[in-house]
């Protein structure tokens, strides 16, 4: 029986010939497909147009009320009958339908430009030339930045807004640039904010490992958020609102009849808080009093509030005699008496909690209720008491500041920049939550927060606009909710009503509160 011959193994030449034939077959198939697409393109366009016209007709018929569909069908049938009876009517109708289908079936996708236009290229080249003195050195053999160089090598990504200004830019810089020095960073950030367009807020993100600087234009924070009940847990206080990319939480807020989700800056207080006390700095009219009123209204939901107003402007008169408001002091004698009581109350709470723990019992109920000590411009009392030879009220804050977290006591201090030197060392040391409001200089922001802000301030700073930093966390842009004095004539009716609705009921008449405050002040003096 004869054996069948074994198949011959392909040689290198035969394998190369087979691969060439396969590549030619693929190329022929691709060419045939492209040719068929070109030939059938009019038919494809008309078919797409007919489909769109049919969809539009069905949608129009579905949107028509049921009582008007009968007359609409009668009108369509009349038109069809008229076209059928007119000489050459069906032919003209078919031509018109094909033309309409061709127009509706055209490709409506606009072709994206390959690159920036002439004006945008000039802007990028100008920005590139401005960065040359900062990102170049004579010893560099292959400089990335050089006069007359190409900006395409230095800018990885660039985007422009509708107004023709830069909206996003990723800049490459040489590895020898000292990006770890704040002074060098500040020079570049100031240059970019000026060249990219003044009057806007920019966020600068430095990537030291990859030698990249990302510049992003920030949207303005909303300034029309009125005071309202925020959806928070006990021990959480909303300082304001920030950018969506900075926090992973949003709060549902009401804008009149609308509802929006806005990212908040939440400050957590209480026994487990790492930043139990807060210091807010600003210039006159920056919104520090607004922040203090907002904190007071939120604190009154779960605790008691003691207010010491060193400004003496009466901006907290709406809180006098309210349920949970222990006192609103504007005189030095009353401030000293109230702060002495706060120090003794903190000590009493510590002793009661310690005794309960030694006995194996839970803390007493009166020590669980939070106590808030709010001080607006306490350095004014420092000067007045020093002139009278009395004790500095800030010295009485040592006990609440040092042991307030264990006793469920929170201290909030607001002060102006021109009196920052008069703040005591205890206030500076124990207030790890910091807020800066108003048009503050970068050096002032860094002095209060401990680190510089990575964003520029707007040209016109609205009240309550600034920065916040909780402990060693990042710096957030901040917009305090509008919480004006409801007794101020300049307050709008909407804002006044919003604040009045949040105030607790009045349990003590204002006259009795004033008499009691005067009696305490007289006894202290």
UniProtKB/TrEMBL annotation:
GO terms for molecular function: ATP binding; DNA binding. ATP binds at residues 282-289. It comes from the Bacteria. The chain crosses the membrane at residues 72-103. The keyword Nuclease does not apply. Residues 262-446 form the FtsK domain. InterPro entries: FtsK_dom, P-loop_NTPase. Residues 471-493 are annotated as: Disordered. Keywords: ATP-binding, Membrane, Nucleotide-binding, Transmembrane, Transmembrane helix. SUPFAM superfamilies: P-loop containing nucleoside triphosphate hydrolases. This is FtsK domain-containing protein.
């Amino acid at each position: 029986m004869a054996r069948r011959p074994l198949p011959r193994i392909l040689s290198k030449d035969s394998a190369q010939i087979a691969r060439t034939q396969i590549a030619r077959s693929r190329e022929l198939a691709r060419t045939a497909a492209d040719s068929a697409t070109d030939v059938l393109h009019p038919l494809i366009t008309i078919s797409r147009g007919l489909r769109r016209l049919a969809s539009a007709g069905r949608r129009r018929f579905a949107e028509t009320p049921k009582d008007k569909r009968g007359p609409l069908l009668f009108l369509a049938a009349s038109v069809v009958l008229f076209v059928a009876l007119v000489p050459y009517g069906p032919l003209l109708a078919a031509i018109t339908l094909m033309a309409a289908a061709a127009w509706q079936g055209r490709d409506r996708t606009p072709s994206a430009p390959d690159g920036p236009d002439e004006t945008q290229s000039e802007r990028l080249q100008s920005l590139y030339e401005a960065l040359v003195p900062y990102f170049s050195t004579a010893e560099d053999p292959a400089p990335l930045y050089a006069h007359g160089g190409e900006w395409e090598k230095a800018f990885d990504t660039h985007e422009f807004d509708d107004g023709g200004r830069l909206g996003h830019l990723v800049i490459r810089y040489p590895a020898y640039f000292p990006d770890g020095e704040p002074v060098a960073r500040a020079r570049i950030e100031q240059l970019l904010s000026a060249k990219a367009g003044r009057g806007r807020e920019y966020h600068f993100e430095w990537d030291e490992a990859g030698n990249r600087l990302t510049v992003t234009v920030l949207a303005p924070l909303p300034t029309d958020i009125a005071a309202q009940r925020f959806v928070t847990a006990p021990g959480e206080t909303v300082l304001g609102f920030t950018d969506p990319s900075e926090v992973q939480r949003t709060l549902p807020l009401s804008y009149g009849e609308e509802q929006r989700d806005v990212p908040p800056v939440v400050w957590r207080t209480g026994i487990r808080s790492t930043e139990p006390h807060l210091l807010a700095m600003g210039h006159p009219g920056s919104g520090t009093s607004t922040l203090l009123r907002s904190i007071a209204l939120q604190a009154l939901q779960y605790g008691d509030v003691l207010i010491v107003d060193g400004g003496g402007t009466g901006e907290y008169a709406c809180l006098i005699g309210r349920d949970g408001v222990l006192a609103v002091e504007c005189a030095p004698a009353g401030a000293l008496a109230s702060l002495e009581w706060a120090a003794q109350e903190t000590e009493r709470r510590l002793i009661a909690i310690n005794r309960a723990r030694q006995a194996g019992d839970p803390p007493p109920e009166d020590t669980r209720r939070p106590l808030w000590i709010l001080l607006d411009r306490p350095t004014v009392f420092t000067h007045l008491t020093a002139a009278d030879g009395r004790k500095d009220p800030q010295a009485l804050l040592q006990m609440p500041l040092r042991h307030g977290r264990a006793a469920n006591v929170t201290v909030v201090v607001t002060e102006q920049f021109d009196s920052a030197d008069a703040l005591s060392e205890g206030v500076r040391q124990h207030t790890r939550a910091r807020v800066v409001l108003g048009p503050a200089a970068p050096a002032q922001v860094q002095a209060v927060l401990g680190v510089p802000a990575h964003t520029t301030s707007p040209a016109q700073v609205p009240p309550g606009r600034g920065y916040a930093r909780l402990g060693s966390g990042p710096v957030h842009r901040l917009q305090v909710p509008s919480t004006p004095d409801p007794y101020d004539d300049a307050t709008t009716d909407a804002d006044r009503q919003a604040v009045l609705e949040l105030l607790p009921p009045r349990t003590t008449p204002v006259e009795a509160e004033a008499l009691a405050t005067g009696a305490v002040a007289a006894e202290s003096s």
